[in-house]
Amino acid sequence: MSRLPGWLNGLGDALHRMGERLDARRAAAERDDQLSPPYLAPDANHTSSSGASTAGNGSAEPAGAGTDKSAPGDAGPQPAGAAAKSGDSVPAPPAYAPAVAARPDPVVALPWGIRVAAEAGWRLLVLAGTLWVLMKVISTIELVVLAFVAALLITAVLQPTVTRLRRVGLPHGLATAVTAVTGFVLMGLMGWFVVWQVMDNIDNLSDRVRDGIEELKRWLLDSPFHVTEQQINDIAKNLSDTIGANTEQITSAGLQGVTVVVEALTGILLAMFCTLFLLYDGKKVWQWTLKLVPAQARPGVAGAGPRAWRTLTAYVRGTVLVALIDAIFIGVGIYFLGVPLAVPLAVFIFLFAFIPLVGAVVSGALAVVVALVTNGVFTALMVLVVVLAVQQIEGHVLQPFILGRAVRVHPLAVVLAVACGGLIAGIGGAVVAVPLVAVTNTVVGYLRAYSHEQALRASPEPRGATAHGVAFTAAPGTVSRDD
User: Which of 217, 308, 378, 469 has a CA 20 to 30 Å removed from the CA of 426?
Assistant: First the structure.
């Protein structure tokens, strides 16, 4: 028990010395924090100060004692363990280290033209994919689409009659029924008349064709082309062999023709049904369609719709009138020249006139061929002169005067539209292509003018002398605000 007080005194002295050492280290750390550069982390300074060794007598050595005595500029790389002991801090690079430029953003590194091309490219890819899917859907329901488009064209022709009958005093339903029935009966009579004329003159036409072929053969033998009779017989034999070898294909084509006739009858009935309801409830159908348009774009589309309908109506009326004039003049010309089937040929010219450019060429060539095989070369040349004269009058006088500015499409756009429409949907696509381009041109022009006017209305009103210079003025050919 006599040694216990001495042991307690020794423990107290040891704790006292330990406290003094901790106070000395804390004071050294605070002093190093005050003297250290601002870019050094506190953890690094604390590490350097806490690494100072203490003397054996219990007093703290000065900071930096026991450290490397090398020159300040020769600071070497720290060991890996030093960084771990210093709290995972990274020391500042030395002054002589070369500056490393930061890598630029890839968007900034690319040239402006490449960025614009890339932005436009992926948008065009999305648009092309959308159009591809749309065309696949349309090709799947091609019969329905063509029937509805035909109903729109027929409605554009018959709608003015419904309006006139309602002005006279007929109820809306009765006026629609009278107009639709009359129009369908007239179109049916036209088709029946063509079939009747062809069937009634088929025997006479076959005899005339046989005589015309013999006359054409004699003309080729006497012509300066030096065609021999053996060559003509070889051509006829090759044609006969080709027909005999392809009998199966011809039979298959006949069966496909039956399918085409059934589809055509279905399309005609569907077009008649759609026409009847478009004549009766066309306004309600348009109002329901507007509900599918987003609210922000609805005012512009609501204004573009009536203008598109007026363009379509003007196109159909003008085309019908021009086709009727062509059919009458060419039909009268080939009738006085003694060409058989003059009336059916005139009807074919009227129908093919709805296909711009291509229809006139095909119908005119058909009339020339019939004149050639029935009445000889001279009559065929005279028919060609009549066809070309009427078509020149149509292109330079009738279309500009009748259609006017209502439908103004560049000839290049007409050719490309007819070609694309024919490749996509055949004859129906070629008929629909040009009115579709005309309506699209009208809609785009109106929406551009409408957006420009809305932008001017949203901008602050000008003041002073510049107000007149920036005031809204309608461009030539555009609609006014109150239209």
Answer: 308
